[in-house]
Amino acid sequence: MTIKHFLKFNDLSASEIESIFDKAKWIKSKYKAYDKYWPLEDRTLVMIFEKASTRTRLSFESGMHQLGGAAIYLNTRDSQLGRGEPVEDAAQVISRMCDVVMIRTFEQDIIERFARNSRVPVINGLTNEYHPCQILADIFTFIEKRGSIKGKTVAWIGDSNNVCNTWLQAAELLDFNVHVSTPKGYEVELERAGLYSDDHFEQFDDPMDAAKGADIVTTDVWTSMGFESEKKERIKDFADWQVDTDMMKLANKDALFMHCLPAHRGEEVTSEVIDGSQSVVWEEAENRLHVQKALLEYLLLGSK
Ligand code: CP
Ligand code: NVA
């Protein structure tokens, strides 16, 4: 049997993603009803973190527990991974001792090399290039609130980082549009974004233009993990790329504000917006739990 990994959003087809959303909806309602659901009894997830996390660790660890399985947390500091054990060797060993692996690391190449040497499915819990689990949760949140995302417009304001790249991949797969506005020098790179074409996104110099008519306005930190040495320069470069109420007024009336969190109020977003009525940031965070449970079940057991 070929192993299915989730290293990039478009590792799954549109119909696979849709079936994960359907399952997530069902899993969420069962969870809310305190109804036990243990399809992954006796299965183990290993979570490898080379960067910090709150949401990703908690949602995978609780999710696995709620599905009847177990999760083991490893970090670079206190495993042999931080002492130079080749990633290929680590993959061989780790994947013989568990049923599924989630990795948060730096370059995408690291997770790709791990997956090539793994006997079990590997899930991307964030790399410098992509954050596919986040966008699964974000689109699921949009669908819950507003229905299908097909043909809708997402305005991405700020850095063309891992979260932005993943929105772009999702747009190509699920047929919606992304308006991207970044400062000069931080534009989307097609190849790094893993895109086949630029058919589903448009770049805007002015962030206000990007927000016009959007159904979702979204942003992220100006300095992602691993880029801390550029922080000072980025604060200057991104000063005009803050999502505020004037920008939200240009979007559609029922537009949602999204942010993967953690957020920096007063930098990429004002408190008024993130704590305002259009913001769905807590729902996005919660939905990480439900969509990832559906993803784990799909990768381990297939669709049923
Ligand atoms: N959004 C997200 O992935 O959060 P953490 O860094 O806390 O995992
Ligand atoms: N772009 C951010 C996302 C954090 C969840 C980072 O990579 O640090």
Automatic annotation (TrEMBL):
- Please provide, alphabetically and separated by semicolons, the GO molecular function terms listed in this UniProt record: amino acid binding; ornithine carbamoyltransferase activity
Segments forming domain Aspartate/ornithine carbamoyltransferase Asp/Orn-binding: 150-298
GO cellular component annotations of the record: cytoplasm
Q: Where are the transmembrane segments?
A: none
Tell me which domain of life the UniProt entry assigns to the organism this sequence originates from.
Answer: Bacteria
Give the signal peptide, or none: none
| Residues that bind L-ornithine | N162, D220, S224, M225
Indicate the family of this protein: Belongs to the aspartate/ornithine carbamoyltransferase superfamily. OTCase family.
Q: What is this protein called?
A: Ornithine carbamoyltransferase
The species this protein was found in: Methylophilales bacterium HTCC2181
